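Hi there. Long-time user, first ticket. I'm pasting a complex I've been working with (about 193 residues overall). I'd like to know whether the download I got is complete or cut off, because the file seemed smaller than I expected. Thanks.
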Amino acid sequence: MTDPLGDTATFDRAARFYDLLAPTPDAEELREALSFADREVERLLDVGGGTGRGASALGVRERIVADAAAGMTRQARRNGLEAVRADAASLPFADESVDAVLVVDALHHFGDPERAVESAARVLRPGGLLVVREIDPTSLVGRLVEGGEHLYGFDSKFFAPDELGRLVADAGLDAKFRSRGFEYTVVGRKSDE
Ligand SMILES: C[S@@+](CC[C@H](N)C(=O)[O-])C[C@H]1O[C@@H](n2cnc3c(N)ncnc32)[C@H](O)[C@@H]1O
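Hi, the file is complete. Here it is re-exported in full:
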């Protein structure tokens, strides 16, 4: 049966072992992406943040994981992070309350990725930044990952870099993307005017 929130049930079960199995996020790429923010990043929200691997890689004062799987938020707290159970499509945070939103290897698992991007844009402060790290389904490795995830039973919906760039722009952010092999990063900055 399709999970309206995305692939959360599987992640709930995998949370205990996730840190042993998951690929390590590219901290340098994330730091470089964050430098596009037009304000100091002191409060960061890691959406679909799982056990908090993306947030943990960054030296930001306040780091909060928001994830729909209870097992993941429990593990993120064990890892020393603040964590809330939440659907990415309706983040329980006030408008303009965070400096940056990170979404690493997670957007393709969300039940409603379009609303998730809008929700991220809403919570950003002026000058704040959305950073999305994704897999390019038009690359060979990306196609293999996509096929593998569907075989495994995930509902993953992957976006090509230009498609995701448009989605981020449609949410009112100034979007840019950079591709490196099968992985890419889209950043969307909220105007501070
Ligand atoms: C592949 S994991 C990535 C975790 C983390 N960002 C990382 O890089 O290690 C995808 C995460 O998205 C979460 N997720 C799936 N659907 C979600 C939703 N609708 N809202 C919030 N989180 C969701 C899953 O529970 C899981 O923790």
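A couple of notes from our side: The mean pLDDT is 94. Residues 8-21 form the longest helix (14 residues).
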